[in-house]
Amino acid sequence: MPAQVAEIVEEMVDLERQSDAHMKFGGLGGKLKGDLRTQEEKKHRAKYKTLDDSEQKLRFFSARQIACRLLGSRGYLCQKCWLPHEDCMCSRIVPCNLWDKIQFWLYMHPKDFLRQNNTGKLLWQVFGINAAKLCLFGITEHEEIMWNAFMHSGRNNVWCLYPNKNTSTKSVEESFGGPHQTDAGETFNFILIDGTWSNSAAMCRRLKERAELMWGDDLPCISLATGASAMHKLRPQPSWDRTCTAGAVIGLLDELHLVSRFNSLGLDKQAQVVENSVDVLLASLTNRRVRMGRSITRRQRNHNDFC
Distance (Å, rounded) from C-alpha 179 to C-alpha 292? Predict the structure, then answer.
């Protein structure tokens, strides 16, 4: 557990002990509820005011979000699939070996950590924790591990999947279709920004600023020709040209498979295994909603986006 997260967890457990009241979490975002909430928020605001700059405040915000989610999930969520224990889908996920020259980095916003309908978690369930590494936004230890790996690989072997109008992007064919000599030790690092679209801009900006410091250059970005994934039925994206994290990986692997120097690696089959895992997650979430008497569809946030 990251040091600052562990510190906040211990402080909250101490507060619970001193108050002789049990911590309760619930509602949107799994926030702390009850009598302890007022005490904890007062302590949080006081600590926040003592922080000197925006970087310290970001780190504290991220650590507190993660600490609350960890405490709120105790005895409730499966720590692998992030679903309630009675809905655990782990036994239905089929693992698969990813081509060993690909390394995925799940750059996840704290608000998506332990979120039941998050699809990024499927990548390490399918490919394993060494092929798909979790890096939590604003957590120093995680970010340093990721950037040390990038420094070792070199700028030419790092790409971010981020189809933003304000960011210079290339297609998979433009990035990989030209003449290229693959070195025996070369690893292709792909950063997957795993967060809501409203949070992704800040996450991308942080990546680009760090790339500028490290290499004096922008972070290469890739856009995909993929559309909405199966999860769109339950968790719609802002528009049909955007997809979930697992959907982006499916699109990337499928498009890489079409590049001649990669088409013998079985990347299309690896994409299919991820797609199957998305179907498993969708079925698990749908069954839970039906059992709880909740709607299995979401209202369209902007009708024009879906027409």
Answer: 55
CA atoms within 13 A on the CB side of 195: 22
- Range of the structural domain that residue 24 is part of: 3-72
- Terminal-to-terminal C-alpha distance of the chain: 44
Q: How many CA atoms lie within 13 A of 7 on its CB side?
A: 9
Same domain, 169 and 36: no
| Mean of pLDDT values over 12-35 | 79
Q: Are residues 67 and 198 in the same domain?
A: no
234 Cβ neighbours under 8 A, 6+ residues apart: 117, 282, 285, 286, 289, 296, 297, 298
In this structure, are 175 and 268 located in the same domain?
yes
Q: Which residue has the higher pLDDT, 180 or 3?
A: 3
What is the token pair recorded at 99?
Answer: 């081509």
**pLDDT value, residue 38:** 82
Question: 305: pLDDT confidence band, cut at 50, 70 and 90?
Answer: very low
Tens digits of residue pLDDT in 153-197:
999 999 999 866 555 688 899 889 876 644 556 899 999 999 887
What does the CA dihedral 265, 270, 271, 275 come to, rounded to 10 degrees? 170
Is residue 242 scored above 80 in pLDDT? no
Report CA Rg, the chain. 20
